[in-house]
Structure formats: structure tokens, C-alpha cells
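Support request from a user on the community tier.

User writes: "When I paste my C-alpha cells into the form, the page sometimes reloads and wipes my input. The last time it worked, I copied everything first. Here is what I submitted, just in case something in the input itself triggers the reload:"
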């Protein structure tokens, strides 16, 4: 295996492990990995458009619609008219959604704490550089 392939294999393994860990750690919320990721994106409390969520997750729009339908049915998010452009919608957390998103953020911070003790600051910066390069290389239209 080449070093380049090794990077993608390790990245895929880490992402998979992270998703499984979050799903198990937050099992009492009854959410899928995808739903957890949407809550993480919305955790800042700022309304996001469907397009912004799509960019943040990379799901097909139909898949994202299904995720949002489930989150809305669980009273975790609401879709509202976008005050900046009434032709589009924004997604906002409900009070229940804010509490769930806080649990997601707490779980992510806990994982960050575990990692921080295992690697140096330079290694963390290197990881971020590799992760950003991978995301950029795989963006639509990037030629990948």
C-alpha cells in the first residue's frame, strides 16, 4: 500500500470509528450518525440554509431532506422561511434540539480531549492540514 492510499484508508477508518462512537455515546437520543452531524452543524445556534447544510455534509439533497424530516418529526429542528430570501428555507434548532446539540458538542469535545493527550500540537496541525487537503481534493469540480 502506498503512503497516499494509506492516508485515505486511515481517514476512512477514523471517520467510521468516530461515527460509530458518537452514535453509541449518544444512543439515548435515538439519532443516526447523519442526524448527529446535522445537529453538530447547527450547534452554534445560527440558522443555516439547506444549501449550507448540504455543503457541510455533502449528502444528496434528497438524503438531507429525509434527515431533516426525521429531525423535524422528533421536534429537534424547524424549517422556516429564510428572512434574507423568502424563496428558500433555513433550519433552526428547537429548544429540545439545542439540548441535543449541546450533548453532541460535549461528546465531540470529550473526543478532542482524548486525542489531545495522545498527539502533539504539531501532529494535530498536520492532521488538520491533511483532512483539509482531502476535503478540498474531493470537492465537486476539483478533478478528483
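"...and here is what came back when it finally went through:"
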Amino acid at each position: 500500500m502506498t503512503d497516499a492510499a494509506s492516508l485515505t484508508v486511515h481517514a476512512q477508518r477514523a471517520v467510521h470509528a468516530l461515527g460509530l462512537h458518537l452514535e453509541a455515546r449518544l444512543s439515548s437520543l435515538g439519532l443516526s450518525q447523519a442526524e448527529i452531524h446535522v445537529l453538530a452543524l447547527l450547534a452554534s445556534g445560527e440558522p443555516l440554509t439547506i444549501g449550507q447544510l448540504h455543503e457541510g455534509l455533502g449528502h444528496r439533497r434528497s438524503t438531507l431532506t429525509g434527515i431533516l424530516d426525521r429531525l423535524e418529526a422528533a421536534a429537534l429542528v424547524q424549517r422556516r422561511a429564510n428572512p434574507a430570501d423568502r424563496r428558500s428555507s433555513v433550519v433552526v434548532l428547537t429548544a429540545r434540539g439545542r439540548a441535543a446539540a449541546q450533548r453532541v458538542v460535549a461528546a465531540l469535545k470529550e473526543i478532542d480531549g482524548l486525542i489531545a493527550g495522545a498527539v502533539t500540537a504539531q501532529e494535530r496541525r498536520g492532521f488538520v492540514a491533511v483532512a483539509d487537503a482531502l476535503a478540498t481534493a474531493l470537492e465537486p469540480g476539483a478533478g478528483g
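Agent notes: The reload is a front-end session timeout and is unrelated to the input. The chain has a mean pLDDT of 89. DSSP finds six helices and three strands in the chain. Escalated to web team.
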